[in-house]
Design a protein that fits this description.
mainly alpha, two-stranded antiparallel ribbon, 48% helix
Length: 107
C-alpha cells in the first residue's frame, strides 16, 4: 500500500513493541523551568511529531492520555484534541500550577 508519509514502518514498529509488552507510559523526565514533565511515547507522538495514527495506536493499547494534554492543548490541533478527549484525557490536570487551558494563555 502506498504510504507517502513513511509512517507505516513507525506504526509497525510500535505494534511489535506493544505486542512484546513494552511499558507504554515509560518516560524520560524532562526539565521545563519548573516541575518538569514526563516525556512518554504518547507525548512524543502527539506533542512533538503530531502523529495522530501513532497516538491512537498507543492510546488503544492503554497509554495514559494525560501525559500529552499540555503539548496538545498548546498546539491547539483539533484532531489531536479530539483524540485525547475520546480517550478521556483529564483536562483539569495541574502541572506547575496550571491546567492545560490556563497554560496556553501564558504564551
Amino acid at each position: 500500500r502506498d504510504d507517502p508519509s513513511g509512517s507505516a514502518p513507525a506504526l509497525e514498529c510500535a505494534r511489535l513493541l506493544i505486542e512484546r509488552g513494552t511499558e507504554l507510559d515509560a518516560a524520560e523526565q524532562v526539565g521545563d523551568e519548573g516541575e518538569g514533565f514526563r516525556a512518554t511515547a504518547l507525548w512524543r507522538a502527539l506533542g512533538w511529531q503530531k502523529h495522530a495514527a501513532l497516538g491512537r495506536l498507543l492510546l488503544e493499547a492503554g497509554a495514559n492520555p494525560d501525559y500529552a494534554v499540555f503539548s496538545v492543548a498548546f498546539e491547539g490541533n483539533p484532531e489531536l484534541l479530539d483524540l485525547l478527549h475520546a480517550f478521556h484525557a483529564n483536562w483539569n490536570v495541574v502541572h506547575d500550577g496550571h491546567t492545560p487551558v490556563s497554560y496556553t494563555h501564558l504564551t
